Amino acid sequence: MALLNFKKREKFAAPVNGQLEAFLQGYSIEVMPRTAEKVENFRDLLPDGTRVYIAHIEGTPIEEMVATAKRLAKDGYPVMPHFPARIIKDKATLADWIARYQGEAGVDQALVLAGGVAEPHGEFHSSMQLLETGEFDRAGFKRLHVAGHPEGNKDIDPKGGMKNVEDALRWKQKFNETTDADMALATQFAFDAKPIIKWADDLAAAGITLPIHIGIAGPAKLQTLIKFAIACGVGPSLKVLQKRAMDVTKLLLPYEPNDVLNQLAAHKAANPDFNIEKVHFFPLGGIKTNATWAIENGGDAGKPANAS
Length: 308
What we know:
Number of domains: 1
Radius of gyration: 19 Å
Number of strands: 8
Number of helices: 14
Order of helices and strands: HHEHEHEHEHHEHEHEHHHHEH
């Protein structure tokens, strides 16, 4: 039934914005084990080759993470599990996780981040400490993504500003010169294109040239997005949602990321050297809703794997 529905959409929902279609090529998306369990067949939702991040939330057993990675890899999707430093007890645990992912799911890429946990479970508190162990390089990982924060991060800069965030990015840029893995920044989501563009340009001017995979919240109820935005510390662009909430005509309508993505796509088309390389979706309104939106707007030729 899902395949039939997608074929119907293909007939009527040809992409109308060539810039957006180009900008969405090679997009990635995020799942958690508990949300993945609700998806009967990912190939009805995602195009071939879609990179799927697996978010590791505190309390999720590593066995569930690896099982999800194995399922997605079996369906042919490149899998990028999260390695949150603050929930990894020690170097032995890190090595064990890497071995499990590789042995059972053939994983060779990772998103390495601090993780949104107040108190570290062990000796690690930052992504830089995980990278310094050398475990990913010894395991032959081909791709390592690290976190970027276009609007800052109160965990890293509790007094505001961007100093500590920028210092961390400079460290990661330097680390990029020492690893054989391809690196990129995977960012927190934001809703306003102008601050994103300024942030990316400022990084380039500062010599931070890691490709940027920009985080974008997928379609969702406005109240849901505001809740997640506040919880995740999204700053200036939260005003975009608050302004929308004051418009009675839009209050009850689902938010869709057309505005921010159209502006970024237009900027990329006019400035090919602009360092945002890919789009990474946070499916806050559900993976099916997000995947459908991406396909209907031309992401990866506008069709899921099972529609080819």
